[in-house]
Specification:
Number of helices of chain A: 3
Radius of gyration of chain B: 24 Å
Structural class of chain A: mainly alpha
Order of helices and strands of chain B: EHEEEEEEHHEEEEHEEEEEEEEEEHEEEE
Largest sheet of chain B: 5 strands, mixed
Shape of chain A: globular
Number of strands of chain A: 1
Shape of chain B: elongated
Largest interface: A-B, 18 and 34 residues
Distance between the termini of chain A: 39 Å
Order of helices and strands of chain A: HHHE
Oligomer: heterodimer
Distance between the termini of chain B: 20 Å
Strand content of chain A: under 5%
Number of helices of chain B: 5
Largest sheet of chain A: none
Number of strands of chain B: 25
Strand content of chain B: 25-35%
Helix content of chain A: 40-55%
Strand order of the largest sheet of chain B: 2-1-3-5-4
Structural class of chain B: alpha+beta
């Protein structure tokens, strides 16, 4: 697949997708520079769930998976 | 499989009610799709479903768009197709379908309501999503022929984990229930792949409905459904090869051949096997591979193999030859074949035989997961 940086539209899709299905929340509190962001960790979690290469970044294959038609129930169980 | 923690129906007798209908299908088609989608689960568990036409059922089924009365609005066409709630009072167990989608009864047009509903009812009964790409409870929609649908093993394990097996005797003892299809396991030493090919540096291993795709960096191959990539392609293909000359991958099933250019199916395919020049007596190819040096494609059929001149687009004279004549020591049937870094690999059953094309010597006998790390 062509290697191209994710578009703004892809970024927005990813944000919505990760919030809806992988419980991405707003990042509050101190950000530890060396630690991957919550967002990157959620991308990795999603890639692992779908058996994709775990890169933590929005590569083309990950965006392609996010665009597939699917069920609206979250993939991780939300804390009640 | 995964389950919603502590969410199951306390009785095996569950009621459902269809509150409204989609304009995409007739009332009878919706009723039938919903009924069959519930029977998928009843067949392998003690659960029994009764339809009611008024009042509150355990599973309330409705079609709606965008904001439709719960705090999970739908998103218009595609994207989210439906959702359902874990067993419980009130909205618990209810299933909602996004009526901005185009639902269908039996064709590959739109989204098959039976398949979408069967998935959602898995949630209604207590199952959450599975990361097994072959499971019905895998979150991404994938078309499967409803007429031959059989609940996969992962889903059977899930529902029986919650409710136990179906304790009723099979009403048709002379027609045993089909064995639930399981997802192939790369760690299975007895795995026999259907076909292997390269595709612009990637390696693809086909098995049943599935394919593993490995990238050149040798990362763990990704397992997915063939139909996730190519809905038009059949399952259980026989052979595959990549022609470096035409930059196409050819896939074979019975007497038909498909061509891919990159990840797109080339228009005008499938074609008949004989369009390649194979004799009419050849109805099926067991394996195929492209030899980079000679620019010939070898087709393996039973104990023989043919040589096809890709440049001249015709079969070479003097074939078929016996496989063990061209590849000494290869006495068992070739089930898949390809070339990697100039070495030829002939699969037979769960073994892989490495050959030098120049000397035709058998160099090593390897396990089937040599390129498919467990």
């Amino acid at each position: 697949l062509p290697i191209s940086p994710p578009s703004e539209e892809d970024e927005a899709l990813a944000e919505t997708y990760l919030k809806r299905f992988f419980n991405l929340t707003e990042e509050t509190g101190p950000v530890f520079k060396r630690r991957p962001s919550q967002r990157s960790r959620k991308v990795s979690e999603m890639q692992s769930f779908f058996g994709l290469k775990v890169t933590g970044t929005l590569d083309a294959e990950t965006v392609m998976m996010m665009k597939k038609p699917r069920c609206g129930v979250p993939d991780v169980q939300l804390s009640r | 499989f995964t389950t919603f923690d502590n969410h199951k129906w306390q009785t095996n007798r569950v009621t459902y009610r269809i509150e409204n209908y989609t304009p995409d299908m007739s009332v009878a088609e919706v009723d039938n799709s919903i009924e069959r989608a519930l029977q998928v689960w009843a067949k392998v568990s003690p659960l029994r479903f009764t339809r009611i036409y008024s009042g509150i059922a355990d599973i309330m089924i409705s079609f709606g768009t965008r904001n439709h009365g719960d705090s999970y609005p739908f998103d218009g066409p595609d994207g989210t197709l439906a959702h359902a709630f874990a067993p419980g009072a009130g909205i618990g167990g209810d299933a909602h379908f996004d009526d901005d989608e185009s639902f269908s009864f039996s064709s590959t047009r739109g989204y098959n309501l039976f398949l979408v509903a069967a998935h959602e009812f898995g949630h209604s009964l207590g199952l959450s999503h599975s990361n097994d790409p072959g499971a019905l409870m895998f979150p991404v929609y994938s078309y499967t022929d409803p007429r031959t649908f059989s609940l996969p093993r992962d889903d059977v394990n899930g529902i029986q984990y919650i409710y136990g097996p179906n304790t009723d005797l099979n009403p048709n003892p002379d027609k045993p229930d089909p064995t639930p299809p399981s997802t192939p396991d790369a760690c299975d030493p007895t795995l026999v792949v259907d076909a292997v090919t390269t595709l612009r540096g990637d390696k693809m291993f086909f098995k049943g409905r599935f394919l593993w795709r490995g990238d050149p960096q040798g990362n763990k191959p990704v397992l997915s459904l063939i139909k996730n990539y190519w809905p038009e392609l059949p399952d259980n293909i026989n052979a595959a090869y990549e022609s470096q000359l035409s930059d196409r991958v050819f896939l074979f099933k019975d007497s038909q051949v498909w061509a891919l250019y990159g990840y797109d199916i080339v228009p005008g395919y499938p074609k008949n096997l004989n369009s390649l020049g194979l004799p009419r007596t050849v109805k099926k190819v067991d394996a195929a591979m492209y030899d980079e040096d000679s620019r010939k494609t070898l087709f393996f059929v039973d104990d023989n193999y043919y040589s096809y001149d890709e440049a001249m687009k015709r079969m070479d004279k003097g074939f078929p030859k016996r496989v063990d004549e061209g590849f000494p020591g290869m006495t068992s049937k070739v089930t898949a074949a390809f070339q990697v870094r100039g070495f030829t690999y002939l699969y037979s059953g769960s073994y892989m035989f490495e050959y030098s094309m120049r000397t035709r010597r058998q160099l090593r006998v390897l396990g089937n997961n040599y390129f498919l790390p467990c």
